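Re: the request from the purification team.
They wanted to know what the chain is likely to look like in 3D before they choose a buffer screen. I agreed to run a prediction and write the result into the notebook, where they can find it.
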Amino acid sequence: MVNYRYLGNSGFKVSEITYGNWVTHASQVENDAAIATVHKALDLGITTFDTADAYANTAAESVLGEALKGQRRASLEIFTKVYWPTGPKGPNDSGLSRKHIMESIDGSLERLGTDYVDLYQAHRYDYETPLEETMQAFADIVRQGKALYIGVSEWTADQLRAGHALAKELKFQLVSNQPQYSALWRVIEADVVPTSEELGISQIVWSPMAQGVLSGKYLPGQAAPAGSRATDEKSGANFIKRFLDDDVLSAVQKLKPVAEQAGLTMPQLAIAWVLQNPNVAAALVGASRPEQLEDSVKASGVVLDADTMAAIDTALAPVAVTDPAQTLEVSPKSRP
């Protein structure tokens, strides 16, 4: 079964393997298969589910809501997000204005079939909206009982500090940040993680397998396997391009004996690696087939010894991205 960790400086626990439906539900995977995968996640002990209103232009939330119908609500932890455009993409259909947040939470709750979400997240930082307006809207949503906790995604250390201060002033808990993090993408380690540890904020990390590259299935000098993410524009092909360099792929192949020595598959090694960071509360994993989750959940509770961690660092150090300035590039400077 899957282990649990506290989310931020709170008493709220989440499954350290969390199911995310970014590029699968209502996009890459047919609804019946998506629902079967959610049910498999539940069977394996995953109780935490992450989605967003923008995924498949709201359809992913609807699929997740359908998949969780009939489950005991108090036994689930359901997360969603707000920021990216939804609907007809009018002038107020994106961002973190009070108008967009207050309308978006109601739409998300209806699609998810629940009266509240456990965690409501700012999907990016909105440079066009005063932070005070955004945080006041989140405070009101918490007081209305529509969200229990508030989180953010891909915020910089300075943005986290400012948001945390306002949350404290408004008397609600900012408990999490959701950044990209893997053994190949380590940009949060220098600034975001130390600041988060100081403030009592956890990381819920996406792409712990670097869009699948750390699975080892992409080989240097060879075309991407048919049906893989790299060949499917609907399933994140644009995001994986940065890792499909032969130097990167060659470095990743050096992890095969490391994984074998540790008694793990390469995907398990990648997920276990991010979970060694004590500031990480959960690793988001997706799946297009139920059986893929059976492999992923076995990373829960794995402790990698110092030699294994050193071997991973040695193999990937020449190609891993560590520049903290990369976090500044994630949130658009104007609303999309």
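For the purification team: The chain has a mean pLDDT of 93.
Please add any questions underneath this entry.
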